[in-house]
Each structure stands twice: as structure tokens, then as C-alpha cells.
Prior knowledge:
By secondary structure, the protein is mainly α. It has helices at 18-56, 60-79, 83-107, 112-139, 143-166, 180-192, 196-223, 264-280; strands spanning 12-13, 16-17. Strands 1-2 form a two-stranded antiparallel sheet. A hairpin with a 2-residue loop joins strand 1 and strand 2. The protein is globular.
Amino acid sequence: MMKRRTGFQPVRFFGADTAPRGRALGKLVARMTITRTIGEGGRWLLDKIVALLAATGVHPNVLTFLGLVINIWAMTLFAAGRFPAAGLVMILAGLFDMVDGRVARAQGRVTTFGAFFDSVIDRYSDLLLYMGLLIYYASVDRRRYAVLVGVAMAGSVMVSYTRARAESLIPSCKAGFWERPERIVLMILGGLGDRMAPALWLLAIGPNFTVIHRIVHTWREMKKGRVVDIVPVQAPAQPEATPPGGEAPLHPIGTEKPSFAKSAAARWTLFLGLVLMLLWLGNAGP
């Protein structure tokens, strides 16, 4: 007489036990939960910092300018060859870059000039950081990397310029990947890991590829007739009411800063691949 099997028997697919797959799936879910918890904790801490700064009444433009001052400090560290220390200082500067806009919204001080001022200061901050690297590589007579810094610097400026110029002709030009957050994070990783050389290769190639992408995108959009009216064909709409405090409202088109949330999955998947490439090229020296 055959004995009847009792208890749970794992289902098998193609001769493989699903139990290991279940354990792997459980580990993946646990990691995703940890990542989500870290993200929520970071947002909670950032909200607390924003609330504290907003309560002090400090003007958002002051916070923006302080970020520039801190990046000058990072520039001097890069120029001295102290890359890990410069990476840490860049994280501090990035904190001010993250909170200035949030503080402006919390205080009701969001203005068109504030967005313009922030963009200008961001460009100066980027150029100062590259200037520090340029000074270092010139001082140690590493001309190839000095050239790389120059190419990366040009790409950094042109990514922003091509978008600004294109959006005076077409409704939107957000094509490409290498916006400021990605460039800053990659520079921080290169500094903290003392592997700035491979980071520079990526910073020299990637942003300039994005510039080409945006040129092609703008050409295609204009060929399809998707252009903006340089000279309005109708009477302009009445200006919005000025909020309390006498400051004009922020115009929603063409002035907002790039957001990490935009196409987050695709952007950060690609960025993770670039970071892995950075680690693979890590033997290229500082």
C-alpha cells in the first residue's frame, strides 16, 4: 500500500526547486524596503532642515550664495590634490543647493529672479570645481587630464546653454541624461574614492554627447513645426497677482530646476551603470 505524502512539497519548474528563488525574492524585497526606508528617512531629515531654515527667516538667495562659497572651499581642496576632502565639502554644498528652493516655497518667496539667480550661481559653482581640478593637473604636469578637465568644463556649460537656447525656440528641450545632479554626484564619487581620472573621462564624454543629443532634438522639433512664438501674435495675458511681500510669482515654464524625480528609474539605472564603469576604471589613478 502506497504511503500518502503529507506536508508542503515545493513546486518544481524545469527540475529546479522554487525554494531558493523564494529566498532570493525575499532578500530583494528586504533590500527594496531598506532602500525605501533610507529614502523616507532622508526626506524626513531634509524636511526638518528646511523647516528650521525657513523659521529663521533667512533669505533663499543667501542660502544659494553660501553654496557658492562652500564650493570655493571645495575648489581649493581640489587644487591641492585633496580629492576625498573636496568630495565631502561638495556634499555640504549640495545640501544648500537642495534646500534653497524648498525654503523659498516654505517662506512664500518663490520668484522668477530667484530661479535665475540660482541658475547663474550653479554655473559658477560648476566652473569653480573644474578650475580647481585644472589647477591641480597643471601643477603636477599631467596635461592629458588637464585637457580632459577643459573638455568636461565645456560640456558642463553647454548642456545648460543648449537647453536654455533651445527652449527659446521650441517648447521643451529636456533630451539627454547628463544634467547637473548626475555630474555633481559623479564628481563627488570620484573625489571620495580618490579616482577622479576615470570620473573625468565620463564627465568629458557624457555631457558633450548630451549636447549633440539636444541639438538633434531641437532640429527635429523645429522640422516638425513645434516652435514657440518669438513675437506674440496675441496680446499678452494679464500678469498674475503679486503675492504678499511684493515679489512676482515664479513663471512655471523654463525656470524650474531639473528634478531627480524626472524619469528616475531610467536615469538612475543608467547612472548606476556609469558608476560601475567608474569602479572598473579605478586603476587609472587620481
